[in-house]
Protein 1
Amino acid sequence: MALSSVFTVEGMHCSNCAVAVERAVRALEGVQRFSVNAATARASVEWNPDQLSLGKVLNAVKKAGFKAIPLEGEEAADAQRLERRLALKRIGVAGLGMMQTMMFVYALYAGGSHGISPDIAQYLRLAGMLLATPVLVYSGAPFFNAALRDLRQRRLGMDVPVSAALLLAFVASVVNTLRGDGQVYYDSVTMFIFLLSLGRFAEMSVRQRSLSASEAFARSLPSMATRICPDGSTERVPLSAIVLGDRLSVARGAIVPVDGTLNCGYALLDESLITGESRPVKRLQGGALMGGSINTSNAIEIVCRTSPETSTLAGIVALLRRAGAERPRTVAAADRVASLFSLVTLILAGAVAFFWAVVDPSNIMTATLAVLVVTCPCALSLATPAAFAAATSRLAQLGLLVVKPEGLERLAKVDTIVFDKTGTLTSGAVVAHVVRINTESTAEAMLAIAAALERGSEHPLSQAFTPFANPAIVAQDIQEFTGQGVQGTIDGRVWRLGQVDFVAELSEGSHIEDAGTHSRLALGTSAGISAIVAVEDEFTEGAREAATTFRALGLNVAIASGDSAEAVQAAADSLGIREFHSRMDFGQKLALVKQLQSSGNHVLMVGDGINDGPVLAGAYVSCALTNGSAIAQSASDLLLLNRSLRVLAEGVAIARRTRQVVRQNLTWAFLYNVTTVPLAAAGYVPPWVAALGMSISSLAVVLNAARLAARNAGERRAVTRAVTP
Amino acid sequence: MNIVLLLIPLGLVMVIIAVAAFIWAVNSGQYDGDVDEHARIALE
């Protein structure tokens, strides 16, 4: 049987590259089918496992000059781990080499001012060369490879001036060593490689962390599952062998492998992997379970509801991969600027070298090296992507996924939020609460009486009382008066629930009170009205807090709903939202959004993502509160997986902070270059100071961005608790 | 100053030992950095 796999090919820029990759792979024996797409950077291969392994295919791609990265599971984790280890070894070699080289070369400097015998000086130079050469070849390889690839594709990346500086310093040092006279720069070479590798490592860590935030979804599914056979015995089967309707057993602490239906009493599930919500949720028999949630109760049995490929998790992974393949425009722009900058750097270095050759040849090396190193646009090209990566991974942890590349930038600019009501601000259920109470009794007792009167009623509002029912309180002789209310007898007393006038009739008109708005009901006996009850939409978790936070962030909040004017007004009043529109179909909602946008607002549309797709697509930026397999078809820029609007409010705040960090980073990178270039060109900056300055500026940018990803201590504790079984 | 002739090769040997030790440590996974993973193993 043939095996197949999909992997990413890095470094392809045109269809010629794709042809080169294809030729290299097809030359292998055992490849049955291979296709590669330069636009998406994806390659898919089918091979015969008897003749070939995936490793060999990836190696062939690598030999052709490209980088092949497996997309799935263990292989991707392994590739990441190996990349990290290799980078660490390069840093280690460069760091240790740098320390020792400095000992030797600084002895030379000291000898220069205090006197040193020529034999010893030459001995030190040779030792320096012996140390710097392996550092250059092993630890410097990534820079030279990247520069070569750039040059071959007739582009200028920032590795071109870096490599030029390294080669220039090293070759000049070797020439001076062989001549047995003059300055050597082995210390600068090793230090530059060490510091630059450190910066790259920090960048890689941020990138891998944000990658793992999305790939964590893909990897969170186990590769094996326990299937229950019809005879009751169990067997371990690979995930791919599971079909619809299979019964699976999930042990305590194990991960639910597919979307399924609970087939036993109840289960407690930790859905934090998918929704970011760390409190376990309870599911009863027949309830829907999401693949990827962790079973925190005893062993449970589930029935597979979707195939592994169409599960909720698979939908999320597909969206995130699509998002990951595209790059936000600002990042692309920063790259173009960096490329231009590299060109300017090279020209400037040439000009500086020429100037000093004419004016004072002894300064050529110092000034030229310093210019090449100091102007490296590393900080500039890191400024934006580092911040975006950190913020995206932070948001994913919270349960807000950025699925379109522009989503984060746009979220920061939002000044108006339009909410759909049902399914977004409200859950669709109604709930009753006591507004005023005229007797000694408690609110719970009043609601229990109301629940007893409404039991068996077909009226939609009656559901508002169901949660308060008390089995000990039973109403008899229940009569419904259409348009007025219900009447029943409890413990020999006659109670009425309904319109104020209707209830007041029992007490012959005494104690008539104004019940306020229409959705309020009175509850009373012949002794008078006992309580006023309001029936309201039940708000989704965090809706109240979110409405407050959005206002605190200075955003205009509006509701656009298809619901009746009363229901929308009640919800808006309760949330303190002043602008609301009722009885709108999606065409009218879209028109509202367009009208707001044409008057210069940046609108964030929040909907349930199921029936308001066109409205979401029409807004400047949109967020869908959806889960289930509908996720993959979502047209929105953001996905709120845990339906908690509080997270969305935090998302807006994080997006704004991200924009701020990007600005700080760009300002810093710009100021750094503006101040250091003239000093370097004037020959005031020794190469090692230039290397230090450049690396510190890159590290500052990466660390500043990392602030966005930081979790606070409270959340860390919550995670630890969630891990504890 | 003859001692320098001995100390410099000694320094080179020390670097080689240090590099070898570091590479061994990285290869045996000591810097893989998944701290949460170890907590989880201990708790399960």
Protein 2
Amino acid sequence: MQNRYNYIFDNITSTYNFTTKNNILYRVAFIVDSTFTTISQEEIPNVYQLIVEKANDEIEPLDAKVSWTIGDIVERFLDNIKNSLVYVCADIDSRASIRLDTFDRWYQRSDAREKILKIDKIIQIEIHKEMHRLYTSLMFHKDNPHRKKLISIYNNIEKFLNEEK
Amino acid sequence: MKKQKADKKKISQALEKILTDKQLVVSYIKGKIPLNTLTKKGIKFAKPI
């Protein structure tokens, strides 16, 4: 068992919370996401967006236990094999790629790889006439009944958006 | 070609929504907006593990 912080589910905010040794409060939220349903025009249930954020704007010293804690929450969430997760960071956030790298490091070093599949894609998207990079991850249990559909839709997102106009 | 453009627009809008939802939830987590703002936007949290 890797070293991690204890966390609790806060019924008021509907988030998983933990406090680090530096007294920084993290909140982890899973919100219902309809992107895959919208794009495929068929019902793809149990897709959620993962959102991790500090409750305040304090500077965060490097703390490996943070990613292990978030990883543990994700792993438990995906113990329900029907659940799948999208994690998205836009380049508007200067720490986007760092956050994704940190998350990936957890995944690569974790036993979770035995049961959870994670696929990463960088997607170019035009927002208000400006091109942006989205750093994205799709995660799901290897026994997820919608596994093939999820992969196919995720691949199509990249295919359509990265096509020439 | 028209269908491809429609698909591209649909996907762009869906991805924009992901980002908008995320920004709203981050604001909520930081205590800048109330829960009912999320509710009005149709954002729903998953049930506890």
